[in-house]
Design a protein that fits this description.
2 domains; 3-stranded antiparallel beta sheet; rod-shaped; Ig-like_dom_sf; Ig-like_dom
């Protein structure tokens, strides 16, 4: 809540129309003399509307902000090309991709996420033609 004033304004944070103190299950901290709202437990894919109300004897000011949570996750994807054309020795390795909103992004974004098991799959099991 980037406000200044003399005397120093009192700052109240809201989620939607209600003060954050009244929002069930919301874990938060108010820092920097009320100017920063730190929220700890928002879930991925959620849309949150926050606002702060600053008041002093000179008047009041409302600042609004919308917050959209975007979450990265690992996806087991297409199989790589078979490592052998025949002979019952080939394997295909599933490809692991880091996604944000179903778009592949740099894998470093998924560094803290649990990787799904990606087991190799046998392929080209037929015998090789004799020469």
């Amino acid at each position: 809540c980037p406000v200044k004033g003399d005397p120093t304004p009192n700052i109240t944070w809201f989620h939607g129309e209600q003060p954050v103190a009244n929002v069930t299950g919301l874990m938060y901290h108010i820092l920097a003399a009320g100017q920063i709202l730190q929220v700890a437990n928002l879930s991925g894919g959620s849309h949150w509307d926050f606002s702060c109300l600053a008041q002093n004897e000179a008047g009041m000011l409302v600042q609004k902000a919308s917050l959209v949570i975007q979450d990265y996750w690992w996806s087991v994807d297409r199989l790589a090309t078979c490592s052998a054309s025949c002979g019952n020795r080939g394997v295909q390795q599933p490809r692991l991709r880091c996604l944000l909103n179903n778009t592949e992004v740099d894998p470093t974004h998924c560094a803290g996420k649990v990787r799904p098991a990606a087991q190799p799959i046998a392929c080209n099991r037929r015998d090789c033609p004799s020469r």
